[in-house]
Write a structure and sequence with these properties.
Length: 320
């Protein structure tokens, strides 16, 4: 049975959020020598729209005029300024109706910000681009936003982190519909991972460590970040601020919603990621981040990232 893939694009859409998934589905058609997937590019209104790169696109259909076929999957593509766009009541009604008539529905990249306006993501787990994950979670606290996931499936909802991960999501569709072998062949032909070895958090160029709470606590955090090589444990942090470990931990829980030790580990791993990306030796990275040895760094790094320091450096050392 022909499966229609509808992607809604707004003016200024990120071109790869549309072209990436469509090319994956087209490759499945080519491999099987038949049309399994029918692409439909949809606009909010009008036939013509321009992508963020300036490439002009011609929509096959308009949102409010579209009558979905029997088997359809629906996605909303992202755009750089999508956080400032609000759908009209008529558009929300049309998107909601289309989602409910779809076998599965969701978003690519920042498109989750538009989909969330329908209320259909209520109490759902979703993925979106890491740069807007906090914004999405703050606007819609009833949505469980996974800031690290490349894609998430929750019931009929399918969401991708953004840009190239829209192709990861397309592979999951193909695997669901046609089986793993076909999806793996598509991945091989497109020269992409069938399962990427890590989440999108690894692509953040600078791992930002939260510095917050009352001023004295912020001063302690900044001092710790400047002296990670010397700060071996929470005891030294407590001594620096002339507090007991118990009192300091209580302050962190109140102000940062995490323990002192959790914050310190995040700080160490964030710096380790940056140093590994710059090609430093693991022993050197361990010393600069306050770990007693490379083995201790390795255990902590695997616990937080799911990768060994060696694998992380190979994957991201030349890309960050």
């Amino acid at each position: 049975m022909l499966h229609t893939i509808v992607i809604l694009a707004i003016p200024g859409v990120q071109l790869l959020d549309v072209a990436g998934p469509f090319d994956a589905f087209a490759e499945a058609n080519r491999l099987l020598h038949r049309q399994v997937y029918q692409p439909i590019l949809m606009s909010l209104e009008g036939k013509h729209l321009h992508s963020s790169s300036g490439v002009a696109l011609n929509a096959h259909a308009r949102l409010t005029d579209f009558s979905p076929p029997e088997k359809v999957s629906f996605l909303i593509a992202g755009a750089p300024d999508i956080d400032a766009r609000a759908l009209t009541e008529r558009q929300i009604a049309a998107v909601t109706a289309l989602c409910r008539q779809s076998v599965r529905y969701g978003s690519v990249c920042t498109g989750a910000l538009l989909l969330a306006q329908t209320g259909l993501l209520h109490q759902r787990q979703v993925a979106t681009h890491w740069s807007v994950a906090e914004l999405l979670a703050s606007r819609y606290p009833d949505i469980a936003v996974d800031a690290d996931a490349l894609y998430v499936a929750d019931g009929p909802v399918r969401t991708a982190a953004g840009v190239t991960s829209g192709m990861d999501l397309a592979l999951r569709f193909i695997e669901e519909d046609l089986g793993r072998d076909v999806a793996q062949d598509v991945a091989a032909n497109l020269v992409m991972f069938f399962r990427r070895p890590a989440g999108q958090g690894h692509f953040v160029r600078k791992q930002q460590i939260s510095v917050g709470g009352r001023s004295a606590l912020q001063d302690l955090q900044r001092w710790t970040l400047q002296h990670l090589a010397q700060v071996k444990n929470v005891t030294q942090m407590a001594e620096h601020i002339h507090l007991s470990e118990r009192h300091l931990n209580r302050l962190f829980q109140q102000e940062m919603a995490k323990s002192t030790g959790e914050w310190l580990e995040e700080a160490r791993i964030a710096q380790a990621r940056e140093l590994l990306a710059n090609g430093l030796a693991i022993k050197t990275v361990a010393a600069r981040c306050g770990y007693s040895s490379g083995d201790v760094l390795r255990r902590a790094f695997i616990k937080v990232t799911g990768l060994t320091p060696t694998v992380y450096r190979k994957l991201y050392g030349s890309r960050l």
